[in-house]
Specification:
single chain, alpha/beta, Rossmann fold, 6-stranded mixed beta sheet, binds guanosine-5'-triphosphate, binds magnesium ion
Length: about 425
């Protein structure tokens, strides 16, 4: 995989392709996002141009004439890399590299590169390497590996092909190995998740467009010290923290990888286990950068990814973050467009109380408050109740315990035989103000 590192400060020329169609992302938006990605990867953007095209040219994506234009523009800007806004096929990439005389990357390679720089945990690194190898396998020639060894042309069929086959085999074996390792990590995560699911803990997962302020929100609401940066994909590894609400409800809040529009499929597949945090959450907090010009479009992109990972139907609370950057009128307008959303700022803390209340409301929604009489002889049941439920009050009597506890609905059956009074749904004991 080609790497861009901050130290070399590659000079990148952006080739944005406007395919028209129903996509609401204008070329200007694409330039802004691609520049942001390139800079996050450590490159310096030295210029850009937009090519309109209905259908991609099979050889050069933008057509030979346009490609020659881009070549001279990129050369004039002294670019060392040309980055395309769309995914290129391996042969298009190779043809363009030959035409330009520079390295050619596409948006997927750029995102993979950023992910590679930001992965810290074992799981994160495995996931990125798997995605990189999957991306690299069909592109082996595109990077000129086997190509440069034999010089191409006549004779490449002999040892060159063998070398290529060998390289492919090595990568395939690596992919298998990484998949096996990841399956192991997956199982560990599953065990952790089961442990959490058996308790009374309500799992809330932060989702949102990259740079929306998910980690900042986690840091404000809990004592977490997650890295916050004005960079895309600062967070790749999920962090979970306990969130204590009103001193009563216990909730686990998990930070996770940010989304982007047209998130490459290989990445979604490779990050399956991280994204499982989202799939198995009880509720999602959708963090939105409300100060972003196109935040509503970013919200749609997030919903698209949620759909792709089968998490679109989860209970969700929309959080309009960065309201400190907006005037009151704009906040009002945004709230009117997103009924039920919460105006928030991870920076100055506005909306925090309301957000906590909303999370508490969601946590209480599927719970039932029961008063139980548990004899001392049923020590195990009492212990299990403490693990699964939230004790609201307890009193001892001569041969046992009278407890009022809040339980998640699926757990209530376990304690039915101890019920002394009618169970009442948790919603009846709504959070105190
Ligand atoms: N003004 C303002 N800036 C904020 C707020 N919340 C976050 N930021 C800034 O936005 C940038 C991104 O914040 P993060 O918390 O790293 O965002 P994230 O969603 O975790 O981003 P990724 O992990 O990269 O997807 C940082 O520069 C933060 O300081 C806010 O409420 N107001
Ligand atoms: Mg983050």
């Amino acid at each position: 995989m080609e790497q861009i590192t901050a130290t070399t400060a590659e000079k990148a020329y952006l080739a944005v392709v406007d395919l028209g169609g129903v996509d609401t992302w204008t070329p200007e938006d694409q330039i802004a996002e691609l520049s942001n990605l390139a800079e996050t990867a450590g490159a310096e953007v030295v210029g850009w141009s937009v090519q309109r095209r209905e259908r991609p040219d099979p050889r050069t994506f933008i057509g030979k004439g346009k490609a020659l234009d881009v070549a001279s523009l990129a050369r004039a800007a002294e670019a060392t890399t040309v980055i395309f806004s769309e995914e290129l096929s391996p042969s298009q990439q190779r043809n363009l590299e030959e035409l330009f005389g520079t390295k050619v990357l596409d948006r997927t390679a750029l995102i993979l590169d950023i992910f590679a720089q930001h992965a810290h945990t074992k799981e994160g690194k495995l996931q990125v390497e798997l995605a990189q190898n999957q991306y690299r396998l069909p592109r082996l020639r595109g990077f000129g590996l086997a190509w440069s060894r034999t010089g191409g042309g006549i004779g490449t069929r002999g040892p060159g092909e063998q070398q290529l086959e060998y390289d492919r085999r090595v990568i395939r074996r690596r992919i298998q190995m990484l998949s096996r390792e990841l399956a192991k990590v997956d199982r560990e995560r599953e065990t952790q998740r089961k442990r959490r699911a058996t308790g009374s803990v309500f799992n809330v997962c932060l989702v949102g467009y990259t740079n929306a302020g998910k980690s900042s929100l986690l840091n404000r609401l809990t004592a977490a010290e997650v890295l916050v940066e004005d960079k895309l994909f600062a967070t790749l590894d999920s962090t979970s923290r306990k969130l204590v609400l009103d001193g009563r409800e216990q909730v686990v809040l998990s930070d996770t990888v940010g989304f982007i529009h047209n998130l490459p499929h290989d990445l979604i597949a490779a990050f399956r286990s991280t994204l499982d945090e989202v799939r198995f959450a009880d509720c999602l907090l959708h963090v939105v950068d409300a100060s972003h010009e196109h935040y509503d479009r970013q919200m749609i992109a997030v919903l698209d990814v949620l759909g792709e990972i089968e998490a679109a139907d989860k209970p969700r609370i929309d959080v309009l973050n960065k309201c400190d950057l907006l005037d009151a009128q704009t906040v009002e307008t945004s709230l009117a467009r997103h009924p039920g959303a919460i105006a928030f700022s991870a920076l100055d803390g506005r909306g925090e109380k309301e957000l906590r209340r909303a999370v508490e409301g969601a946590a209480l929604k599927n719970t039932v408050t029961m008063t139980l009489r548990i004899p001392f002889a049923e020590g195990k049941a009492a212990q299990s109740l403490r693990e699964r439920g939230r004790i609201l009050s307890e009193e001892y009597y001569e041969d046992g315990l009278i407890v009022t506890a809040r339980l998640r609905e699926p757990d209530t059956g376990l304690f039915e035989r101890f019920v002394t009074r009618n169970a009442k749904p948790g919603a009846g004991s709504a959070p105190r103000d």
